[in-house]
Amino acid sequence: QSALTQPASVSGSPGQSITISCTGTSSDVGGYNYVSWYQQHPGKAPKLMIYEVSNRPSGVSNRFSGSKSGNTASLTISGLQAEDEADYYCSSYTSSSTWVFGGGTKLTVL
Amino acid sequence: QITLKESGPTLVKPTQTLTLTCTFSGFSLSTSGVGVGWIRQPPGKALEWLALIYWNDDKRYSPSLKSRLTITKDTSKNQVVLTMTNMDPVDTATYYCAHLYSSPFDYWGQGTLVTVSS
């Protein structure tokens, strides 16, 4: 299985919205609604931000939202804040009953 | 409150076998639907899923590493053990264990850095 494809970096100014894409295949992203998104600050463990494409765990800001179209999932962060600057990873369940992560996207808040 | 903590050697030599233990609390690995997985992250690089064990002892492995990995559980001790054989410097990474239930990897350990060097 190949890693899911994410842009290496995205940036935005405070208050703006940004979207991070995550492209897979029909054997992973496109085939299941088990796409998750994780936020990772330097030196910290990843934190689950979105699960099952668009669900937010308790305690996660509603500024974070997820969606999916075909083989591409997306994470949108609205009202960017300085604390959102981090690495973001997508993950998907696969047809082999395994899991796969994306290559990660570095978000810079300008 | 769910917590997980990884433990094991910080330094291993090439060709050696790595054994990592995930000790958890706040849930039971005998509860239907629960799983514990291992994910690693080389310095400055992306997350890589390695393996997962479910409450019913179903085990899943990364296809690219399957021949080198073994995951087991000890429900009575609340532990999951991952072994990786034939370690190489490219396996240098922070290794995380994480909980899975209604959503995947909703709780993570702090991670443990393993360096492979002679």
UniProtKB/TrEMBL annotation, chain A:
The keyword Secreted applies. One of its GO terms (cellular component) is immunoglobulin complex. InterPro entries: Ig-like_dom, Ig-like_dom_sf, Ig-like_fold, Ig_sub, Ig_V-set, IgV_Light_Chain. Keywords: Adaptive immunity, Cell membrane, Disulfide bond, Immunity, Immunoglobulin, Immunoglobulin domain, Membrane, Secreted. It is found in: Cell membrane; Secreted. Its main location: membrane. GO terms for biological process: adaptive immune response. Pfam families: V-set. Residues 1-90 form the Ig-like domain. PANTHER family: IMMUNOGLOBULIN LIGHT CHAIN (PTHR23267). Immunoglobulins are composed of two identical heavy chains and two identical light chains; disulfide-linked. This is IG c867_light_IGLV2-14_IGLJ3.
